[in-house]
Design a protein that fits this description.
Structural class: mainly alpha
Helix content: 55-70%
Number of domains: 2
Distance between the termini: 74 Å
CATH topology of the largest domain: hpI Integrase, Chain A
CATH superfamily of the largest domain: Intergrase catalytic core
Number of helices: 13
CATH class of the largest domain: Mainly Alpha
Order of helices and strands: HHHHHHHEEEHHHHHH
Strand content: under 5%
Largest sheet: 3 strands, antiparallel
């Protein structure tokens, strides 16, 4: 069997057996194709630890950071584990390989005042009402962009004030939905119904005027549109809303485990980045308020 056939079999494995999302499958295959290009005509079964180290060094010299390289190594390792288990390859050349460490950058967030200013849309048009509901839900529940795009009408439970989302790894979680988001979504659904759009519980929640699914790219564009219109100078994107949700919630509750559950993080170490943001917030308060911290 040639290497391309091995890759095709691995694609089937992660798509149908591991049931990874289409975005994850695409990312894995992109990383693997990068490795194949770096290795030229050399057969997969002949890759060595030295080959992997050399390629990591090449990619690092081209500007890839530690996080990106770690992801690539993980993609390669998964492929070779599969080849060992199914096709009796003798070794995994990625074992023991670690990416160079890179500076850990804290996620950018908006202030509470900026969030309120952004969300406070005064526009009764189709786009205004729909986008207001999108913004309210982003900030109310800390959704990933992919989670919001795929929401269906029956994922919303107005009685319980919750939404059901399918996150990474096709994992389902139920999270609270704030009253402002609930009100905005009800207004959006009422408008959608009045436009004569046939919609069932299985219909996508946020659609275009013709009832078709709203794309991730379209939502990104609408966020930037409203940021400019509402006078928010930051580079607004969906994950910034998620970061702001997590940071503000942690500042108020001090409950890291609850924030982890709401965000759908598998490991709490991923959520701990927001404790650094919280500490920055507390430090600023200390510097402003404590008698011994005030500068002369």
């Amino acid at each position: 069997m040639n290497d391309l056939k091995f890759i095709e079999e691995y694609k089937k494995f992660i798509k149908f057996e591991k049931r990874l999302s289409s975005a994850s499958v695409k990312s894995y295959l992109r990383d693997i194709n990068d490795l194949l290009e770096l290795m030229g005509n050399k057969k997969l079964e002949n890759y060595s630890v030295e080959d992997i180290r050399k390629n990591i060094s090449i990619l690092h010299s081209k500007g890839l950071n530690g996080k990106s390289l770690s992801r690539m190594i993980s993609s390669w390792r998964g492929l070779f584990n599969f080849l060992i288990n199914k096709y009796k390859f003798k070794k995994n050349p990625t074992l023991g390989i670690k990416a160079p460490k890179s500076e850990k950058l804290l996620p950018q967030t908006l202030s509470v005042d900026q969030i309120i200013k952004l969300i406070n849309i005064k526009d009764d048009s189709f786009l205004g009402i729909r986008d207001h509901a999108i913004l309210e839900l982003f900030y109310s529940s800390g959704l990933r962009l992919s989670e919001l795009v795929d929401l269906k009408i029956n994922n919303i439970n107005f009685e319980d004030g919750t939404i059901t989302v399918i996150g990474k790894g096709n994992k389902e979680r139920i999270i609270p939905m704030g009253s402002y988001a609930s009100k905005a979504i009800k207004q959006w659904l009422s408008l959608r119904k009045n436009l004569g759009q046939e919609a069932s519980g299985e219909s996508i929640l946020f659609s275009k005027k013709d009832g078709q699914k709203l794309t991730a790219r379209a939502i990104q564009y609408r966020l930037k549109f409203w940021a400019k219109k509402q006078g928010i100078p930051e580079n607004i994107h969906p994950h910034l809303m998620r970061h702001s949700f997590a940071s503000h919630l942690l500042q108020s509750s001090q409950d890291l485990r609850a924030v982890q559950e709401l965000l759908g993080h598998e490991n709490i170490s991923t959520t701990q980045i927001y404790t650094h943001l919280d500490f920055q917030h507390l430090s600023k308060i200390y510097d402003k308020a404590h008698p011994r911290a005030k500068k002369k």
